[in-house]
Amino acid sequence: MDVATRVIMGSVKKAIQVSTAAAVVVEAIKGDATLVKDIADRRFKLSFGSDYGAVEVQLGNTRVLAKVSCEVIRPFSDKPTEGFLMFNTELSPMASAAFEVGRQTDEEVLVSRLIEKAMRRSRALDTEGLCIVAGEKVWSIRVDIHFLDHDGNLVDAACIAAITALQHFRRPDVTVVGEEVTIHSLEQRNPVPLSIHHIPICVTFAFFDNGEHVLVDPTHLEEQIKEGDMTITMNVHKEVCALSKAGGIPMEVDQILQCSKIATVKAAEITAQIEEALAADAKKR
Amino acid sequence: GSSVLCSVVGPAEVKIRDEKLDKATLDVVARPLVGLPGVKDKAREQAIRETLEPLVLSGLHPRTGIQIVVQTMKDDGCVLSTAFNATILALLDAGIPLKSILGSVTCIIDSKTNQILLDPTTEELALAKSTHVFVFDNKTSVSSTQQENDNMDQDNADSALGAVLFSDSTGLFTEEEYFECAQVCFKATQAVHGFIRTAVQKKLEKEYQQIQA
Q1: CB count, 10 Å around CB of A186?
Q2: pLDDT classification of A179: cutoffs 50, 70, 90
């Protein structure tokens, strides 16, 4: 079989897979009386690297790696006591052959903006605590999120990875005596954790069958046949950090409220799991 | 130690402007762990692409593209060597036809002791007088029995250099030091080839068992 035929066969197989999946998904949901699929469907696994701030999340077949690093730089002149928090969520062709280098697809832009909204705008990290010398030296925290495998729901996985990495990260200890600033190396003094106000967790929902059925944590196949989606970012204190519904079919208000209730439960579950994993890793060190 | 994750997709569709009429097009993307890709990553991409282009039997898949993505997972020195080894394993796993296998080893000459150190860490690299990255293919073997015989040593040296696919050296070093490093790395690469062989063997055994089950 030559390459051209193989490529066509590949895309035909994909089309059959997608339409079969649509039928299967709808049938499965119709068969079950409940409106929403079982919440505890895809468990996620956390693994930490040997360096501080390196976390890998595995959500089914979706794999995301987050790495936190820090640097001392000059702050903006209009915000002399604020540090910086930067996210880099460039998707590489490793995650999916659909992603190209240098060209951002709509999905990439949405993922990037959702992470920014969930993490930065919700003020999860205390940027004032990153100040060393007002107007001169502040910490700039950089979170690089690498998508290793795409099987749907990149946002949720990236969010878990990012917030866990920020909690796991330790920055070098600093002493300021008058004008003199000493940044201690990791051997001299134990590094210090970042001050995190709250832990935002993203929960993504996908809508099917004209808004009749809602799926939590959609896989890649489910994402391709969805009619609409919504991401709610919440923390354990039942505060909504962000709500994103960019396009797709319109939903009723009561459906959105029900989704937010599910998001509350999920956020609590995920936060508990993250804390457990962090405690287990701390013991190992 | 360092860790690199490599993914290979291909032979697959390629953009018309990158299409080659009689060969497969190799596209390598190297991503660092921290920060945006820079000049170092571009250099890494070029090294991997130019070393692999003659190895891949691209004539068997004309007008297609093979996309290789190399992601650094942990950086503690020798990332280029690790990337080379990861890439060849990924190509084998993807079933891309190859002329031969490659293996890569990095060595440094320490500035204080003048010793040759293999697989240096970031700390050791900082104290190096010169750093050498070698990539060897597996077509020539090392003759292990005749080490006293001068003629055989010369043969070994020749076979080491005959098998070089890629060599990158930085720092201050003499010609003798360079050839000595090549020899040492060549011997060390045999271990890398052995590891690749074992890895592929284990994978095939597992797959065979899965088919039987």
Answers
A1: 12
A2: confident
Q: Which domain holds residue B170?
A: 102-213
A and B: number of Cβ contacts within 8 A: 52
Query: Any bridge partners for residue A196, and if so which?
Result: A125
How far apart CA A95 and CA A116 sit, in angstroms, is: 20
Q: Within this chain, do residues B129 and B203 fall inside the same structural domain, yes or no?
A: yes
CA distance A122 to chain B (A): 23
**B30: β partners:** B70
Task: Read off the pTM.
Answer: 0.86
Query: Could you tell me if B43 and B71 lie in one domain?
Result: yes
Q: Are residues B48 and B21 in the same domain?
A: yes
Last residue of a domain, one of B50, B69, B99: B99
- Residue-wise pLDDT tens digits, A186-238: 888 899 999 999 999 999 999 888 878 888 888 888 888 888 999 999 999 99
Q: How many domains does chain B have?
A: 2
Mean pLDDT of chain B: 90
Classify residue B79 by burial, with Cβ atoms within 10 Å: 0-12, 13-18, 19+: buried
User: Is the Cβ of A140 closer than 8 Å to some Cβ of chain B?
Assistant: no
